[in-house]
């Protein structure tokens, strides 16, 4: 379902488990949705290291998700790596009536691909 602001409904809040990722496909792009401390985040599910679609399967700790393949870490809010280098695309998220909506355009502070 799409609304006027380029946000797309992707899930109900009960579908997203705390500190675990869930993959949703938006416009043919895999996006990992996370809930940490009750707040929702959306990042690319594709690790830039070896282009593996595994980010949603990663471990979340201190607002970072680790790619399960080689341990690369990415901040869920900014997509940046711990050393400050860009890493994952990030997407705006909002919750309306217990439904999670993701903006289809990546955030401006995200890495350019």
Question: What does this molecule look like?
Answer:
With 113 residues, this protein is mostly beta strands. The protein contains no helices and 9 strands. The strands form 2 sheets. Strands 1-9-8-4-3-2 form a 6-stranded antiparallel beta sheet, with no helix packed on it. A 3-stranded antiparallel beta sheet has the order 5-6-7, with no helix packed on it. A hairpin with a 2-residue loop joins strand 5 and strand 6 (64-66).
Describe the structure in brief.
This protein has a single domain (7-106), classed as Rieske Iron-sulfur Protein (3-layer Sandwich), CATH 2.102.10.10.
Q: Could you say which structural class the secondary elements and strand pairing correspond to?
A: mainly beta
Total of domains: 1
Look at the structure and give the CATH class. Answer: Mainly Beta
Proportion of helical residues? under 10%
Q: Number of DSSP strands?
A: 9
Q: What is the CATH H-level superfamily?
A: Rieske [2Fe-2S] iron-sulphur domain
Overall mean pLDDT stands at 89
Provide the CATH architecture: 3-layer Sandwich
Sum up the structure in keywords.
113 residues; mainly beta; Rieske Iron-sulfur Protein; six-stranded antiparallel sheet; globular
